[in-house]
Amino acid sequence: MAASRILTLNEVIIQKQSAFPYAKGELSRLLSHIGLAAKIVNNMVNKAGLEASIIGETNNINVQGESQQKLDVFADETFTKALQASGIVCGVASEEKDEIIVFDDDLSRDGNYVICIDPLDGSSNIDVNVSVGTIFSIYRRITPHGQRISKKDFLQPGIKQVAAGYIIYGSSTMLVYTTGLGTTGFTYEPSIGEFCLSHYFMVTPKSGKIYSINEGNYIKFPLGVKKYIKYCQENDPETNRPYTSRYIGSLVADFHRNLLKGGIYIYPKTASSPNGKLRLLYECNPIAFLAEQAGGLATDGYGNRILEIVPTDIHQRTSFFVGSKNMVEKAEEFMKEYGDGYE
Ligand code: AHG
Ligand code: MN
Ligand code: MN
């Protein structure tokens, strides 16, 4: 539902602050700092076609074995600096860094929060003017104040997230977040340089008509996924037409479309990626939190709720089934019946 009067991100998070008395305004300030970094990255993403210095690959390979794009590095540095400058965050786990970053300065050392972040999601799409994003997840630290934080502070199940969200740099730029009280969306208004409330209490349709999966990997999919895809291609009991296939290759953009329209996104494990491709801490958990808060579901396809998986590694991967409740449940039925077998 559209808001009757334009409210900015800062105004809304200040209004909602009363719901988190323990946070003393910290969470609100933190979300503001994330919004600021998002504006800086947005500005650079918009220039990507013009600024030769920002397109293309660096010479680095990240911990995932993927070649880092220049904009991956820029986004990582921008968000890390903004989080450190907030004074509220004591450490970051980023897709672009092998190890956790511990902020050891006087301002941040005792910060109450740790962040898991995918600074630029879908980065292979930068050079071709296709939507990319940033995904973040916020946890309270576990290590007592006065002691140095460790990986343990980041290896918390998704149900412990105090907030999560994404920014989509698309045909318009949006910031979507949740603090566990529904999913809310803001659209960037460049003329005033603010994220403005545009999607209050987002609710995803219980069923949809879109399925999103990289079908180029079809022969490597578990049998349950193959059967579910066939079902999508043959069945829509309501309209008697097949579902529609849509796949951008940016998780944020694929999820965002399905959130609004209804649909399912699947990145299963495959014969060549036995643990799936997407990363639990900074891709699947935040997206799962947002999905559930909008009335959707997120599982690993094997009956396990994403948010309850206890991580053992900061770059851990998982298979991922997310989207409209009825569609995820149907896909789970196929997985239960046919599992990982081969035809
Ligand atoms: P990233 O750019 O952060 O490495 O993430 C890419 C991810 C995700 O955004 C997308 O859904 C998926 O990789 C696409 O993978 P395929 O090209 O294998 O379909
Ligand atoms: Mn990503
Ligand atoms: Mn990324």
Number of helices: 7
Give the CA-CA distance, first to last residue.
Answer: 46 Å
Instruction: State the CATH superfamily name of the largest domain.
Output: Fructose-1,6-Bisphosphatase, subunit A, domain 1
CATH topology category name of the largest domain:
Fructose-1,6-Bisphosphatase, Chain A, domain 1
| CATH architecture type of the largest domain | 2-Layer Sandwich
- Taken together, the total number of domains comes to 2
The H/E string reads: HHEEHEEEEEEEEEHEHEHEEH
Hetero groups bound?
Answer: 2,5-anhydro-1,6-di-O-phosphono-D-glucitol, manganese (II) ion
Helix and strand composition category = alpha+beta
The percentage helix is 25-40%
Number of strands: 15
Output the strand order for the largest sheet.
4-3-5-6-7-8-9-10
User: Which range does the strand content fall in?
Assistant: 15-25%
Query: Unreliable runs, pLDDT <50, ≥5 residues?
Result: none
How large is the radius of gyration? 20 Å
